[in-house]
Write a structure and sequence with these properties.
Layout: E1 14-15, H1 18-21, E2 24-26, E3 36-38, H2 44-48, E4 53-57, E5 64-69, H3 92-95, E6 99-102, E7 105-108, E8 115-117, E9 121-122, H4 132-160, E10 164-172, E11 178-187, H5 189-193, H6 197-206, H7 208-218, H8 221-235
Antiparallel strand pairs: 1-7, 2-8, 2-9, 3-5, 4-5, 4-11, 6-7, 10-11
Amino acid sequence: MCPQDEDDGVAAWEVLGFEQHGTLGIRASGDAERLFVQIVVGEFGPAAADYPILFAKSPETGRFYAGALLRLQAGDDANLDESGRLRGYRPADLEREGFFVEQDRIVIDRDLPMFVDGGGAPLFDGDGGQGVALQRVQRALGRLHAGLPATDAFIARLLERSLLEPIDIDLRFDDGTRFRLEDLYTISADAVAALPDTTVLAMFHDGDLAACYTQIQSVRQIARMARVRNDRLAGA
């Protein structure tokens, strides 16, 4: 969640404050541009109601992270409303887009098009208090700050117990188009069922078991999303 520094160690980001950003607002970001968004384990419940939850490896570090698959391909707007925003749960990583935490301070990149001076949803009210938009951002940052280490630990336990397995998504639609995603992983229901009773009991007490089955059940959302896309094609 920390921004990268420019060369020479000088940060390219501005510390958010009323004095400098009192008239600054944010416009709705383009949810339609994101296919796969990182989430933390505390988001599994609400995210699973709308999206499949899968695991991927970071190309920079090679480490696993959890994410929600928001759509099957670019241009697929089945999960979007008329304004281009997600209809269902909006992951914290989207809510805080453009905002980061650096040394316990919120910093922003003013060059991003989501920031507008004198327009959009205001970050501050006239008295310098936090606007509704900024309150949402702070809640999202707090959820990520607490959730990322917990999620890393959860994934480490999955790997220790050999519970992750590859999943290839290969779908063909009625219009002849094909959707394929590789290099994604899911929790193996068979591997969970084969665990010793003592391990299952420990996972139940620390919440891992519930998170596992929430993720496993969420994979069914892939079939739902495919049906929705085919239904839309049939009605076109």
